[in-house]
Amino acid sequence: LGGLQPSSGCEFVGGAAYGDTLYLIERGDTAGGYRFSLLAYDASASDDENTPEMLVIDLNAYGNTVAAAAANEYELVFATESVLYSLSRESGDITESPVGGITSLTFFDGEPYYTTAAGKLYAFGGDKPVLSMSEKISVASRRGTVAFADGGNDRVTVMRDGSQSDIRVKNPAAAAIGYTGTLFVASDKNVVAFDGNDQVASYDAGAIITDICVDTADILADSLYVLTESGELLFIDTRAQGTPESVTSGVTAIAARPDGGVFALGSDGGVTEYFPSEDGFATESTGVTAAGGTDIDSDRAGDLFVLTDGGISAYILSGGVYGAAEQVQNTK
Questions:
Q1: pLDDT tens-digit map of 47-78
Q2: Residues 164, 169, 173, 177: is their CA dihedral positive or negative?
Q3: What is d(CA 184, CA 187) in angstroms, rounded to the nearest whole number?
Q4: How far is CA 241 from CA 110, 201, 222, 244, 274, in A?
Q5: Is residue 307 within 8 Å of 293, Cβ to Cβ?
Q6: Where are the alpha helices (DSSP H) in 95-198?
Q7: CA neighbor of 180 nearest in space, from 238, 220, 148, 146
């Protein structure tokens, strides 16, 4: 097919292929604006035999260019800036849908799908996205299980023992995994517990939840630390009917301590340790101050990692004392 040229005064603006058929969409100027034509070539034919078949003389497409196109055995779909078109390969009939901002088209299991500039994936004819771009995906892992809380798509993807499953959850903001494998998901004002894919409990925090983590030292039952939208840190003991208990306020982010309790990043950048005691909660300052910190995590050794606008800083624990910040990634 080397040497294919558009008609005089025209240009190719889109194309798609299926089997031995190559479809090219041609655009030309007319007094009334742009005119689109669809050409079909047999890719198995020699150049001498390859005379294009003009399937549709005038597509009557609205727009200046073709943003995307795809084909399968039965139809060709293509999109301009504001309209999505479907052409039946058998009858030549065209259907139109007023859909703008399409960036790509493809077929899966015989059905056309398209993505939009807003970062959403739709099935052709559907008015709800199949997938959406997520501003934040929260990840939790423990004892061979990994969970991804995908807030943009109302689902939690769980990978365990070589298998993967999706659990539908409304607005999942964060996930945590208990010692026995129970999955906890923050959903609006509730922490929802799952055994496998089955919901087994729900705990009301009384406020919108932004993050959760489990107390890693509690292996007999699951104790949870919950951070609310207002910066309040709550403790939920699942053995006590899940009634939340206030720990402190003014918290920006939390992370589980490797030997139990929780690290809390305060709005002032200070990192404090909290852990249950006979009189409520004991506190201990780490001596770490990370001005502008927005998120925090810890590894098994107890080292701290703090995210700021400028990157990720590590605070290494040695002899019970945290060292000065070491930048491990610069985001600027």
A1: 565 565 655 445 555 566 777 888 888 888 88
A2: negative
A3: 9
A4: 49, 10, 12, 9, 22
A5: yes
A6: none
A7: 220
